[in-house]
Amino acid sequence: EIDRNAVALMLRYSYIPAPYSIYRGYRKLPPACILSVRADTPEAFDPTPYWSAKAVAEAGVKDPFRGTDAEATHHLDGLLRDSVALRMIADVPLGVFLSGGIDSSTVVGIMQAQSSRPVKTFTIGFDEENYNEAHHARAIADHLGTDHTELIVSAKIAREVIPSLPILYDEPFADPSQIPTFLVSELARKSVTVSLSGDGGDELFGGYNRYFWGRSLWKRVGPLPRPLRAGAAAAMTALSPKAWDALFHLAAPILPKSARQRNPGDKLAKLSEIVAANGPDSMYQGLVSQWKHPTQLIPGSSEPPTPFSDRNQWADLSDFTQRMMFLDTISYLPDDILVKVDRASMGVSLEAREPLLDHRIVEFAWTLPLSMKIRDGKGKWLLREVLDRYVPREMMERPKTGFGVPIDEWLRGPLREWAENLLSERRLRADNLFDPGPIRRKWEEHLSCRRNWQYYLWNVLMVQAWVEAQASN
């Protein structure tokens, strides 16, 4: 039986947080836990943790690293070299994913420095230029001298992965980067059986944009009276995102580069929600949420406690940025990022390994002062210092980009018929899971380009597609 409460969590976060699952009465084993059962009874003991991210974070902050920048760089480099070397041990062909970003480039640089032959690297690119980072990865590969394989895929090839997603991920899962992750895994499996990946660097070393601009923004707007913030939020939504996009386009020639954003109208709409938040933690909850009131879409549902809402699961951290990083480490990282990589890689019989998540690196990262993670308006400062030993800094000086696909455009174009079938009022009522009204309104606004509701709609679509796949089985 479908757990309607879990579906509500899925609509909010784009994944179902552990320990919940899509099935009512079934639970996932949480990370770093052991479950013991007795042979003579069907009863199981409660999961027992053998390692605690909460304890590690609290211990690290209480006993911080007191060395110099150079000492921290040297120590992290040593930990990374050992972690990567351990994960290069294999009796089968070995490779590594290379996106061209800080994390994967660091892993590749350290691998190549410890390998007697060119490391096999794999990159996926898209023929949509705004979503294609393959040329950055190619430049890194050329500099390091790796045995590089690059595949530029068309939108058609990427879209052909979508029907397999419900089966591949076992339960509804809606991070759109699941598509390129599967494609790069499929590419790598043609040559290797094991591949290293660079996941975890953002959470451990402060890589996500929200860690620095969220903190900076709240410092500016937090002290303002609530009515004034509410007025500013109303002003931001006075024009539609489409109208804001047009204004930004007209003003582009006179705007500084930092103000030239993709989809500025949607970013302003998101900003309006942040400005109106009750406090910094409420602001963060809004940043990581898609549907803000998902239970209104699912009759008879309620949201069970998660690390975001249950403060008993929080580490004792006084700093707001550290709290964000901790919550991402115990939720978004294991329940989204690592699920995405695990299901995509194992779906093609490829073993993925994560050297940045060696427990020694996690433990050291939590001893570091925030200034060694976020400095001069940039995240992952210390990781960049290590990477400088392997790749010239000028090759990495560019804005952070995600591993994305143009879901918004696809839903208005080649995926429109597929989506309309799953989001039709008749279909939504027949499945008896969602209230069609709010979903249909967002779908119509998206099609008319009044708003970009791609992530909201993708969450619903992945639930609907999963329900359809279950019915066909």
Describe what this molecule looks like in 3D.
It contains 23 helices and seven strands. The protein has 473 residues and is mostly helical. Strand 3, helix 4 and strand 4 form a beta-alpha-beta unit.
Structural class: mainly alpha
- Could you estimate the helical fraction of the residues in percent? 40-55%
Mean pLDDT across every amino acid position: 91
Which residues form runs of ≥5 with pLDDT under 50? none
Sheet-strand content, in percent, reads 5-15%
Using the alpha-carbon principal axes, give the shape: globular
Pattern of helices and strands: HEEHHEHEHEHHHEHHHHHHHHEHHHHHHH
Major sheet strand order: 5-4-3-6-7
Query: Helix count, per DSSP?
Result: 23
**Main beta sheet, described?**
5 strands, parallel
Give the CA-CA distance, first to last residue: 15 Å
Indicate the radius of gyration in whole angstroms.
23 Å
* DSSP, total strands: 7
